[in-house]
């Protein structure tokens, strides 16, 4: 298998590896158990994202705010917004993730300028909470798109893109009803966190110190630790190790690299230390994880 690649642009936002190269669309079913500590790494990207919970509960962080989601609920996360999901009470949660680049809605420039750009640029809309009662039509569109992906009929991508226009119409209409609500301007701490998280994701293979991370956020080491603790409930080094473990888990699943090579590729200089951290986070050794023997 090809080696998994983690790409970052010069301004350090994440590049998504889509389902089909050349079509900026990602539709998957996920489980929080697949992430170390039942916590997805904090990240941001140009794509917009919809999460819908099929089972369980999830807490969601968006630009410094924490949102509680239950089964049958979801969230829309706007472009270039810091976010991640994590387990409520350390329980598993299964969900649908629908993610696409706004350029998919740009076949007509006038339509894009009138209906898409205003939502992307609206600071009141870093996220929208979704549920079957208030936003049932949006939820229905997400589930329909998931069914299209599962069935993969002939030319299903065209069918999905058509459904995305219908979905966006509902999102645009919903945001248009938010006139007068306060703008969600990221705080200085969130802005610093964005820089530090992006730095970690770009340089995770390298030997990084707390000072390296703090320098990227233009803060002292103490302030760096306070920001990570307040925003992510993790220390900077815990976040770094969690991200490294997340990448290593994908390499275990999708490549034939040896465990030793994976440890080195992800920034762990000692196999024993990597194995110990992996077992603590996933409840099994790297080799057991590769064989599907997770607890």
Automatic annotation (TrEMBL):
**GO-annotated molecular function:** DNA-binding transcription factor activity; sequence-specific DNA binding
**Has the keyword Transcription been applied to this entry?**
yes
The answer on whether this UniProt entry bears the keyword Transcription regulation reads yes
Key words, A-Z: DNA-binding, Transcription, Transcription regulation
SUPFAM superfamilies listed in its UniProt record:
Homeodomain-like, Regulatory protein AraC
| Residues covered by the HTH araC/xylS-type domain | 194-292
Q: Which PANTHER family match?
A: ARAC-FAMILY TRANSCRIPTIONAL REGULATOR (PTHR43280), HTH-TYPE TRANSCRIPTIONAL REGULATOR EXSA (PTHR43280:SF2)
Protein's name according to its UniProt entry: HTH araC/xylS-type domain-containing protein
The organism encoding this protein is Hungatella hathewayi WAL-18680
């Amino acid at each position: 298998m090809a080696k998994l690649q983690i790409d970052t642009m010069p301004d350090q936002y994440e590049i998504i590896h889509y389902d089909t190269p050349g079509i900026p669309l990602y539709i998957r079913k996920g489980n929080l158990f697949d992430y170390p500590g039942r916590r997805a790494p904090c990240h941001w990207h140009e794509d917009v994202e919809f999460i819908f919970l099929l089972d369980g509960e999830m807490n969601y962080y968006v630009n410094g705010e924490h949102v509680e989601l239950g089964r049958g609920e979801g969230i829309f996360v706007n472009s270039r917004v810091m976010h991640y999901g994590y387990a409520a009470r350390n329980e598993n949660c299964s969900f649908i993730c629908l993610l696409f680049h706004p350029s998919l809605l740009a076949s007509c420039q006038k339509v894009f300028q009138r209906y898409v750009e205003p939502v992307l640029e609206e600071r009141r809309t870093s996220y929208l909470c979704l549920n079957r009662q208030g936003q049932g039509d949006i939820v229905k569109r997400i589930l329909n798109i998931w069914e299209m992906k599962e069935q993969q009929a002939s030319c299903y991508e065209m069918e999905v893109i058509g459904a995305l226009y219908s979905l966006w119409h509902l999102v645009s209409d919903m945001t248009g009803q938010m006139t007068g609500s306060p703008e969600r301007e990221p705080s200085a701490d969130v802005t610093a966190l964005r820089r530090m998280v992006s730095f970690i994701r770009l340089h995770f293979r390298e030997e990084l110190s707390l000072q390296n991370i703090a320098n990227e956020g233009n803060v002292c080491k103490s302030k760096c630790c306070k920001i990570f603790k307040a925003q992510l409930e993790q220390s900077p080094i815990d976040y770094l190790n969690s991200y490294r473990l997340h990448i290593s888990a994908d390499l275990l699943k999708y490549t034939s690299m040896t465990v030793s090579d994976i440890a080195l590729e992800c920034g762990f200089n000692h196999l024993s230390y990597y194995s110990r951290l992996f077992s603590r986070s996933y409840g099994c050794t790297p080799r057991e994880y590769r064989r599907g023997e997770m607890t």
